[in-house]
Amino acid sequence: MMLPSLDDIRSAAARIAPHAVVTPVMRSDRIDALVGVPVYFKCENLQRGGAFKFRGASNAVWSLDDAVASKGVVTHSSGNHGNALALAAKSRGIPAHIIVPDGAVQTKVDAIVAAGATIHRCAPTQASREAAAAEIQAATGADLVHPYADARVIAGQGTLVPELLRQVPGLDAVLFPVGGGGLAAGCSIAAHGIDPAIRLFGAEPSGADDAFRSLRDGHRVGPFVPDTISDGLRTLIGEPNFEALREHAVEMLPVSDAETIAAMKLLWSELKIVVEPSSSTVLAALLRYPGRFAGRRVGAVLTGGNVDLDALPW
Amino acid sequence: MMLPSLDDIRSAAARIAPHAVVTPVMRSDRIDALVGVPVYFKCENLQRGGAFKFRGASNAVWSLDDAVASKGVVTHSSGNHGNALALAAKSRGIPAHIIVPDGAVQTKVDAIVAAGATIHRCAPTQASREAAAAEIQAATGADLVHPYADARVIAGQGTLVPELLRQVPGLDAVLFPVGGGGLAAGCSIAAHGIDPAIRLFGAEPSGADDAFRSLRDGHRVGPFVPDTISDGLRTLIGEPNFEALREHAVEMLPVSDAETIAAMKLLWSELKIVVEPSSSTVLAALLRYPGRFAGRRVGAVLTGGNVDLDALPW
């Protein structure tokens, strides 16, 4: 696949504008004091479906021509992307097939069902996910909307950066969590398309630091067994996504789950919003690596708020 | 004391505008479907200090002339009002004495300390609170800013209604939790000052339904022992507050703590925001008494988000 351009991201922004929420930006004096610089949180937990994933999924769904769209869409996802694709498909009135690996957070599965999609279960490995998707594609003709290694998805996720830079002009750093890398790639392309001087940072759990190791070693590492509470960041970074991170010199900042949980509580207490562990890695990184951000105005992406309230990690 | 007028509320709005946040309004398709009518939540959990109380406290603090202000302010409060007064005093650079009854939520006490106020402990009874306040007033000359039976406080709390009606024109019902009744009185005066056709509703825990019983019986009931998780609503309604509720025909809707907790989880899940039990009584009332709201567009006040994350009620 070809990575999208800033123009593709701008087209995506126009395409999803009737469907997606312009999410608010929040900040806190106390967090600024702890980090030492002003931090502007882009609240994608307040996006439709409770996560940024709706941007990419709706861009993909509304990019299809009518004949293709009528056969539906399929994806594999442990949660937020599946829910986002289900919502986007519903808004266009087309079928959605979501392959959910065993062990996914139950509230995320419930949301997919509530959005009217058909759920298919599979083993929690990359190979099982891809095999199940190929099977459903073959049987239904549904269009595969990969959760991150898809130019339409990457372009959609990237739309949050022009929006953020309109809301907070003059940012000189942007920080996002890195899982499969759809958000990271889209945000990097958009940020540097608009202002090549913006510094880019990725936050990643130490127990799923494949992007950190890949960038350090200069090649994409192989499959690994993730060990982190950040359920949205357990995936191996995609190949095109890795290329985008390398090209845009994204600096990866690994954080421990303990740091993530402490940051999550701080975000809940200070901003009064519900965010996922995955989202909280960005504040954990700000607090662990303050030197990286000294003198900068930072935009940090809070990716989602779909949490099982009966199983909070503290 | 004289109850404030709509003009007083408009003056308060101008007075606090440099200090207070214009809080957002949120909604959810799923909640609207469950209630059966459109509900617009005024998010005072996103107010400074995490509660609507900052409106009244800052109106009181900035109403004082310099000579009086320099002696400081004093109040008794189990939490949000104390924190709000501490923050407002700090912004004006004057001392604040906060009398905190034993048993107050620790995170709220921590916030008062963080805001730089002097904490004084007392027994958790109305008599102890008032005696302690009188003592500090006598010793310091500090101005008493009562948490709810104070015209400046009532006017300040009322400022959220003109703000809400600008954000969502055409509401025909406003619903708020009722504790001491400062918010209820201010909102009632403001709403009927702007549009006498607006229907007013109060939500109250069954275990602290003194406003319900007072309005039913036609006179203010006496002190009672509250039994509710809604820590912000355990106070007896004030005398002028009761008169305001009666004059404005506020209909009280009691809800159980179980209903409040279920509503709290639903607000967290659907809106992705952190709200207190006290705030959640409004959604509990909407879900328990849907017939009262049929055919109306409802504004509901989410009063605060100061929760002990280590002691969630589910």
Report what the structure shows.
- The structure is a homodimer of 314-residue chains.
- By secondary structure, the first copy, chain A, is α/β, with parallel strands linked by helices.
- The first copy, chain A, has two domains: 6-51 and 152-302, Rossmann fold (3-Layer(aba) Sandwich); 54-149, Rossmann fold.
- Chain A is built from 15 helices and ten strands.
- Chain A has helices at 6-16, 29-35, 53-63, 66-69, 80-92, 106-114, 126-140, 151-158, 160-167, 182-194, 210-217, 239-247, 257-271, 277-288, 290-293; strands at residues 25-26, 39-43, 73-76, 96-101, 118-122, 143-144, 173-177, 199-205, 251-255, 298-302.
- A six-stranded mixed beta sheet of chain A has the order 1-2-10-7-8-9, sandwiched between helices. In chain A, strands 5-4-3-6 form a four-stranded parallel beta sheet, with helices on both faces.
- In chain A, strand 3 (73-76), helix 5 and strand 4 (96-101) form a beta-alpha-beta unit.
- Chain A is globular and about 55 Å long.
- The model of chain A has no long low-confidence stretch (mean pLDDT 96).
Write a compact overview of the structure shown:
With 314 residues, the first copy, chain A, is an alpha/beta fold. Chain A is built from 15 helices and ten strands. Chain A has two domains: 6-51 and 152-302, Rossmann fold (3-Layer(aba) Sandwich), CATH 3.40.50; 54-149, 3-Layer(aba) Sandwich (Rossmann fold).
